[in-house]
Every structure is written in C-alpha cells, then in structure tokens.
Write a structure and sequence with these properties.
The chain is of the alpha/beta class. It contains six helices and seven strands; from the N terminus they run E-H-E-H-E-H-E-H-E-H-E-E-H. Helix 1 runs parallel beside helix 6. Bound molecules: glycinamide ribonucleotide.
Length: 180
C-alpha cells in the first residue's frame, strides 16, 4: 500500500501521538509517521524520541521563524498530512494556506461549541451534560474548519481530571479513524 507521510505536532502528554503511532503499526493503516514537531519540552517530545521518530523541538521562536524551520523539515520528510495533537500554538494564515486542506486538528469540544482554550473548564462551568471532541481540517480561523469526525459522551462528574482522562480515551480512538 502506498502510505501517506504524516507529521504530528504536539505540546502535551502525547496520548494522541501514541494512538496514531499504534494505529500506524497496522499494515492496513494508510499513513506512516515521519516526523514529530514539538514547540516545547513535553512528554510528547520524550515519547516521540523513545519511539525513535525523527523529532524536532523548536522553542523560543516567533511563529514566523518557527514555521520557516518547520516547513523545511516537512518538505524534507515529504509530509502529506499534518496532525495537530494537543499542539498549543496557533499557526499563521500563511502557513495554513501553504498546507491547505493538509492540516488536521483535534479539539476537545463538540465544535462549533466552545472553540479556543480551557474547554473542559468551560463545559463544567456551563453545566452542560454532554462533552466531546472534534477532528477538523484547519483553516485560517481558529477551530472552525470542516468537521471530519466527532463524538459526544455524558458528563457524569464535575471532576476535571476525570473528564480529561475520559475524553482522551475516546479521542485516542477517533483520531486514527479520521486519519484513515
Ligand atoms: C487533547 O485532549 C486535545 O484534544 C487537546 O489537547 C489534548 C492533548 O492531549 N487539544 C487542544 O486543546 C487544542 N486546542 P495529548 O497530548 O494527550 O494527546
């Protein structure tokens, strides 16, 4: 099978990175992970290193210079699809248009509800009884590109850590399926 070359961008714990890695071990998965980009030292960076992926830590740069370096790396690795997986930096419209329709993001809310940051806190304070997550194409506007996959589940407790753990279990199933 001719596989698409993937890049994961991450800034966090790396559970979605791990899920994409595990999915890619299946011969039926249509993508292979070529390079992991992190904008700060984080567990996802250590995970990518430990899995022996080409891994770049590019921190302390403004977005323009960050993107210049990243773009070169992506071209070098012949990347077809960028998967933002807990990547907490907003990409510029110029970068997004260079990679038009080739950047996916996973966002922890049922978009178009609760775009932006601190979605779990917003859900809990809103009293909403459902929460969920969305995989969408990245466009120039934050968290507003075409939705490709989504799930929702019942919020049964007000415990923030439990909510985050719970959402990630579903995200780790959803993201590889959407990439497929
Ligand atoms: C995920 O829950 C993802 O939806 C969220 O960050 C977490 C990363 O977890 N993304 C955003 O908040 C993007 N705005 P991970 O590092 O364990 O994959």
């Amino acid at each position: 099978m001719n596989k698409a070359n993937l890049s994961v961008f991450a800034s966090g714990k790396g559970s979605n990175l791990l899920a994409i890695h595990k999915a890619s071990l299946d011969s039926d998965f249509p993508g292979q992970l070529k390079i992991v980009i992190c904008n700060k030292f984080c567990p996802a960076f250590e995970l990518a290193k430990s899995l022996n992926y080409e891994t770049k830590l590019i921190s302390n740069l403004d977005i323009k210079n960050f993107e210049i370096i990243v773009h070169k790396e992506l071209i070098k690795q012949k990347v077809d699809l960028i998967c933002l997986a807990g990547f907490l930096r907003v990409l510029s419209p110029e970068f997004v248009s260079k990679w038009n329709n080739k950047i996916l993001n996973i966002h922890p809310s049922i978009l178009p509800l609760f775009p932006g940051l601190k979605t779990h806190e917003k859900i809990l304070s809103s009293g909403s009884k459902i929460h969920g997550s969305t995989v969408h194409i990245v466009n120039e506007k934050l968290d507003s590109g075409k939705i490709l996959g989504q799930f929702a589940f019942a919020v049964k407790s007000n415990n923030l850590d439990l909510l985050i753990d719970n959402i990630k279990k579903y995200e780790n199933l959803l993201y590889p399926e959407v990439i497929k």
